[in-house]
User: Fold Dehydrodolichyl diphosphate synthase, putative from Eimeria acervulina.
Amino acid sequence: MVATACAAVGVRVLSVYAFALNNFYRQEDEICCLLDLAETLFRDPTWIQGFLMSEDIRLVVVGDLSFVGPKLRAAAAAAAAATQNNKRLLLRICVAYGGRHEVHRAICRQQQQQQQQQQQHNEQQQQQQQQLVAPQQQDCCRTTPEPHSAVPPAAAEAAAAAAAATPAAAAAAANVSSALQLPAEGFCQRLRSAQIEGKWKPDKITSELGCAFWRELQGGDCPLPSILIRTSGEARLSDFLLCEVQQQQQQQQQQQQQQQQKHQ
Assistant:
């Protein structure tokens, strides 16, 4: 098999495109046949014990499995758990996978994390404001007015406004020195606004957000593909590993340019 040959020559990661999201546009009987075949394979003890375990191959099923049935999800999870300690080769079988859909999911997960961080930041600010207001309220309760003296309404309103402004100013000062919390707005708009305000430098934006994006991809912890084999005589990628292939191509172009500059 291909996996055995790859493991024999030292390949560490092999990704196989088994079922694309676009395949759901096929006829229903064909879809059911392909997904049933995948479920049967993941449940086959001969394939798990006789092949994956004996060859020390770890299996990971990549894709949005919310599009498939619970039986297939359970079979994929069981097969992955049975081989999780194998280390000779990582076999990534892509089921219900699409490169553009994977990018969308990664960005959505990033936005959710940033929204959670923003919510936690807001809650911390509210707690700080409450801690600043509480002592002032206690001091006001302890203070007794002089006999026959009355506080004019205008003065009372001014004092209340000053007390409210104090925690707000403290929170604003704390916010300046705290880490940047990006709002839940457009991805490019956030990058542009952060750059204009001088909070992030372009290289920092690229490194931090870029690394966070790669971590959210299902293959973000894997090395970039060194070779892509397209069967059936086709030259198109068919929505397979779009980001990974593009990133590898850019790195190869940079290396070629550096070599050309050295020879010049």
In short: The chain has nine helices and three strands.
